[in-house]
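PROTEIN SPECIFICATION:
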Amino acid sequence: MTISEILSNEELRRREFPVAAEKIFLAHAGVCPLPRRVADVIADCAVKGTLGDQEEFMLSRLEDARKLGARLLNCQPEEVALVGPTSLGLSFVAAGLKFKRGDNILIYHDDYPSNVYPWMSLAEKNVEVRLLNIRHLGVIRPRDVAGQIDENTRLVALASSHFISGYRLEFAEIGKLLRERGILFCLDAIQTLGAFPTTVEHVDFLAADAHKWLLGPCGAGIFYVRRELQEKLTPPVYGWHNVRNPNFVAQEKIEFRGDARKFEAGTQNLIGVTGLISAMELALEVGVENITTELLRKRAWLVPELQKRGYSVLNADAKPGNAHSITSFYQDGKDLAAVHKKLSEAGMVTSLRTDRSGKNYIRISPHFYNTDDELRRVLELL
């Protein structure tokens, strides 16, 4: 199945993406609707679970999930753990690393809270939590990072794309400069995985749930830990799955598994993992690079059309390497909450977001299966 086939065949589009028959869904930076194939495998898994041991028929699929995650990230399956919410993976890094007095970390305070609170909590361990200082919402450049780290910086934690501004991070370049200085790099990748190439050659830790651009279920995600760092990251949770217990007999000494499974403490969310597998297969079938091209095409057309209607668009002039389908806009003096309500009542799903100053934005985040006609209808209502 290709993007052109989907966009040129409305029957196929509605069959594969049932939400398209009900509404114009443009909020994939929030929580996505499930494609039919993902919903079908989840339902099938639930039905099979009524016939016997739920786990037995799924065990082999867990390894499939790690392999698919490794293909998306360009790493080894042994570096991928099936850890659900992004918040949990990021918290594993914050809680599992050992810090010493005088260490500092660098974060961005206006990132999504999942990528802020785990790091703020380290202040209790006498770690200095530095807040990245930048001029524009979410616009983080490599030189901004380079200018705000020092010899005591232990880790930098950033998001691959800002959830409001849509500014995509040049994370490979940032990762290179950090590795040259011996500084760890943790990436919250939920806003790019499945939509833009998100590989880990220059990343040490990565977490991403499936429920946004990957078009998967909530609470099913992947957690990457670079092989060389797995022994240095201690899981904050313990269970039968990540601690060795031959024949399910607890041993006198805690000994973790020797790969990323050390972060999978207990029984998996099998239904969620089933959906995650289907979602990753879909992204790989369509092609992440193809998805990227389509999303940038949509944005390049959408931004000037919004500007013609008197709206200001965040990062309107972003270069293709920093642009995203996430398109947030505002108009001074306009009641955007009322506009958002009007869109919702017309069956158009967008997001209303607010920055630290209290300023409102309407955020449109179309995916590859959204048509130009759907975007035109939204623009007409605006």
